[in-house]
Design goal:
It comes from Streptomyces formicae. GO terms for molecular function: FAD binding. The structure is a single chain. By secondary structure, the chain is α/β, with parallel strands linked by helices. It folds into 2 domains: about 1-75 and about 120-185 and about 290-360 and about 405-415, FAD/NAD(P)-binding domain; about 105-115 and about 190-290 and about 370-400, no CATH class. It is about 35% helix and about 25% strand. The protein has 15 helices and 19 strands. Helix 1 runs parallel beside helix 10 and helix 10 (about 315-335) runs antiparallel to helix 11 (about 340-360). The chain starts with a strand and ends with a helix.
Length: about 425
């Protein structure tokens, strides 16, 4: 277990209206540290607990698009740093089985206003908060017991502690949500597809480009984002009935992928899949959504994928940053009254989060169309959208959900009598 504790005083951007508040956040990926940044600025004492032994590096690239994303990144003070660490990803090319290029997808179509690896974004947030926020790695919440004064929390390894509020920001399969809201089966909607990713040697010499091959119901994407010229990322998407597997059994997951992608027709598929058995960084999950009736129960509240997640295609990272801004702001506006703040948070973000989540519903069949006819239809659409004129129209459409929220200036509200 590793602990990093604040020793420096903050430079406030708003009145210290939350100095009396002691908050536990479960999850140190993106949503949790983003909320920690805002709560620390408002003066709260914040602890972030993360079951992983350290920050998780790598991960898929995430992009930000539209006014709401830009506004929050700027108010957080990380807009320039995100741009400095962006992927600079270039062309992504749809190919035939013999590797003939079918459709060239230019960078301006795929990467939003700015694109960054999730792991790099996590590092930025940790760097901006580690001197004001307590981080506890290698531990996890074991139980929550709420009373009129707060929440008694036990941990898998650390000593029991008490907090005023607990935030579940621990992802699609949130353990905090299970403890406070009930079993995941009540909230997770499986969408008929699975996604996986791992790294392999960059045998094709890709340089900030990707090649994408689809057969009915399955797609392989091989890409290099420039961070390490010697490595390439393999992305796999396939349609399936719901599978019965152990989320913690990597060997079982590798066998599922090897069976599902056996004899894929692309000439470079075998070379990419050869790295599966030795991959030490496998990501494997269902493409699914989380739907809860409410985002809070008493002193426990859900943020990001834990409350309104979608595995991919739902602008989830941008949504998490926007909603973290709102949750912290409403707590500050309510002077820490969680009854008022949580209700206001839900009123502000529910429709917005659901709107972003809704566009993820077609991610699976779009990435891995179920028939050859639908593959060709998707590719024709891509070809049309590759023109800059129509790409601008498409960009505005994709930004609509991402920007469909009127953001309050909570710092200004907090200064009012």
């Amino acid at each position: 277990m590793t602990t990093s504790t604040s020793t420096k005083s903050q430079t406030p951007t708003a009145a210290h209206s939350l100095a009396h508040l002691n908050v536990l956040i479960s999850g140190a990926s993106v949503a949790g540290p983003a909320l920690a940044l805002w709560l620390a600025r408002y003066g709260a004492r914040v602890t972030v607990v993360e079951k992983a032994p350290a920050l998780r590096e790598g991960g898929f690239a995430v992009d930000f698009r539209g006014d709401a994303h830009r506004t929050v990144l700027r108010r957080m003070g990380i807009w320039d740093e995100v741009h400095r660490r962006q992927t600079h990803m270039g062309r992504q090319i749809l190919v035939e089985a013999d590797d003939t290029e079918r459709v060239d997808l230019p960078a301006f179509l795929m990467s939003g206003d700015v694109e960054i690896f999730r792991g790099e974004l996590s590092k930025i947030l940790h760097e901006r908060t580690r001197d004001r926020v307590e981080y506890v790695f290698g531990d996890s919440v074991a139980s929550l017991t709420e009373d009129s004064e707060g929440v008694a929390v036990t941990f898998d390894h650390g000593a029991p502690r008490r907090f005023d509020l607990v935030v579940g920001a621990d992802g699609l399969h949130s353990h905090t949500r299970r403890l406070a809201f009930g079993d995941e089966s009540r909230y997770l909607r499986f969408l008929g597809y699975y996604v996986a990713g791992f790294d392999v040697p960059n045998h094709l010499g890709l340089d900030r480009t990707a090649r994408i091959y689809s057969e009915p119901g399955r797609t392989l994407l091989l890409s290099n984002y420039g961070a390490d010229p010697a490595r390439a990322g393999v992305g796999l998407v396939f349609g399936s009935e719901r599978l019965d597997y152990d989320r913690h059994d990597v060997k079982q997951q590798k066998k599922i992928l090897a069976d599902r992608f056996a004899n894929l027709g692309w000439r470079h598929a075998a070379g990419a899949l050869d790295g599966l058995e030795s991959a030490g960084d496998l990501y494997f999950d269902a493409i699914a959504q989380i739907h809860v009736d409410r985002l809070s129960r008493g002193r426990v509240v859900l943020l990001g994928d834990a409350g309104y997640g979608a595995t991919m295609g739902g602008i989830g990272t941008g949504t998490a940053l926007v909603c973290a801004y709102v949750l912290a702001g409403e707590l500050a506006a309510a002077r820490g009254d969680h009854h008022v703040a949580f209700a206001a948070y839900e009123a502000e973000v529910r429709d917005y989060a659901k709107g972003c989540q809704k566009i993820s519903g077609n991610a699976g069949p779009f990435l891995a169309p179920p028939t050859e006819k639908k593959i060709r239809s998707r590719d024709r659409m891509y070809r049309v959208l590759s023109s800059r004129f129509l790409a601008g129209f498409f960009k505005r459409l994709t930004e609509k959900a991402a920007s469909d929220i009127a953001l309050k200036d909570y710092a200004r509200l907090d200064r009012q009598p």
